[in-house]
């Protein structure tokens, strides 16, 4: 099947939830937590070809999802997607391993699932912020987005994996580029007590 969706950055999960309910959206599933892992071969061929194989766990249930290459679209994320429930999570991970597939990227999020007519709505709390995800026909997505006060210019096509990878990379570079603490520049003529304090301060800084 073809999946069509967009993300919208929101400031308040509570306020957005209230707006959705006022518009007649119904809650399909209240807040729950997800664990997600993208699997790939050692040579990274799936990522290089813009395909994805995701194993997701929600409580005791697990699902495997294949996502194809993104199709051309100016405002929407459009790609082929197939999903199936995994009955034996532990055994299935072993199968993936035997096929040469290994976890390449992991992330978690908190989600609430709602619906309005033919639109699937997800309220998401992630490490890159809070988002509203709308999935369905283009016209239905645009209509609901406008009712919530958004326009096409607010549509985000990036997926969470891309956004989280970029954030983690920025955080890593920011941590790596921090100048040494002032204690590390203490002169050799400092007293032994000052040296001890300097050593303690340096050990607590990020590596």
Report on the architecture of this protein.
With 207 residues, the chain is of the alpha+beta class. It is built from six helices and eight strands. The chain has helices spanning 13-22, 45-48, 89-98, 138-147, 160-176, 192-203, and strands at residues 2-10, 26-40, 52-58, 61-71, 77-86, 102-116, 119-126, 129-135. Strands 1-5-4-3-2-6-7-8 form an eight-stranded antiparallel barrel, surrounded by four helices. The radius of gyration is 22 Å and the shape is globular. 12% of the residues are buried.
Concise synopsis of the structure shown:
With 207 residues, the protein is of the alpha+beta class. The chain has helices spanning 13-22, 45-48, 89-98, 138-147, 160-176, 192-203; strands at residues 2-10, 26-40, 52-58, 61-71, 77-86, 102-116, 119-126, 129-135.
Keywords, separated by commas or semicolons:
207 residues; alpha+beta; eight-stranded antiparallel beta barrel; 40% strand; globular; disordered C terminus
Q: How much β-strand is present in the residues?
A: 35-45%
What is the general shape? globular
Largest sheet report: 8 strands, antiparallel, barrel
* Largest sheet strand order: 1-5-4-3-2-6-7-8
